[in-house]
Amino acid sequence: MKFQILPIKEQPLRNPKAFYIAALLLFSTIVALLSVLLDPTRQYDPNRHQYDPETRIEAPDPHPEAMQIYLTEEETFQFSVLAADLIVEGKVVEVIDRTEEQLGVPGVYYTSIYVEPREIWYGECGDRIEVRITGGIDSGPTKPMENDEVILFLGAASTEDVYGTVDYERSIFAISPPNNRIYAFSEASSNVVFDGKSVNQFKQAVNQELRKFITDPDTFPYNRIGDIANDRLPDGHPRKKVYETE
Q: What band does 103 get if pLDDT is binned at 50, 70 and 90?
């Protein structure tokens, strides 16, 4: 006996419009689920400290006489962006008070904030960086706490993976629970406008400052231009710093 495979007669869709609507809904559901599952904020520690703008405490500059650059409140955010060598989002994993006795140098003390980068917005760094901030844990500029999720604007030190904030606490922003919204450590007017904003909105503001600088670098009045802004200047521009290579 011979078997013959007969062709299957194609049946037209009874309701093509309903089929396409159902497919679109299914696709939208899959995209929504993936966005939730892949959202990096799901990795945040839900028990970390929650910051409140109503109780913000900002310490005065520890050594104002040593400051060489005096910023208005409207300039602080722009300065943090354009003077930074590294902009990083990450988790504070350890906070250590470095006292004069520990360092063995009279008059020198600071706090070491160890951060594991979650996302490097601009620049390059290792898997764990040390950020040194003037003053002890409870003195000088306000310090982040362990388990904080932070966005930092940093200047490189001479030691690899050791940095300082560009402008004390004015260069520190937390991603505060429960809704993962921006919290400015400084009460400067150009910083607090980001209170309650999303991380993406904050990142867009950083990009906007860089675009403005590229369009007209002379609108930034300070000589201290960080590596991030400097790398975006065209070769031969009078404000571009050129580093000698070994």
A: confident
Planar angle of CA 109, 53, 39, nearest 5 degrees: 90
Task: State the amino acid at position 244 in one-letter form.
Answer: E
The 3-state DSSP class for residue 27 equals helix
228, 240 Cβ separation under 8 angstroms: no
Quick one: what percent of the chain has pLDDT higher than 70? 76
Residue 245 has pLDDT above 50, yes or no: no
Choice between 170 and 104, residue whose per-residue pLDDT is larger? 170
* Tokens coding 22: 């159902």
Burial of 65 (0-12, 13-18, 19+ CB in 10 A): exposed
What is the number of other CB atoms lying within 10 angstroms of the CB of residue 38? 8
Query: According to the model, what pLDDT value does residue 9 have?
Result: 54
- What is the pTM (predicted TM-score) of this model? 0.79
39: which DSSP letter? -
Q: Please state, in angstroms and as integers, the Cα–Cα distance from residue 239 to each residue in 70, 163, 171, 245, following that order.
A: 20, 24, 23, 19
Using alpha carbons only, what angle is made at residue 83 by residues 77 and 89, rounded to the nearest 5 degrees? 70
Helices (H), the chain: 16-37, 76-82, 100-103, 189-192, 199-215, 227-231
In terms of Cβ atoms closer than 10 Å to its own Cβ (0-12, 13-18, 19+), residue 105 is exposed
Residue 53 has pLDDT above 70, yes or no: yes
Pairing of strands 149-156, 110-122: unpaired
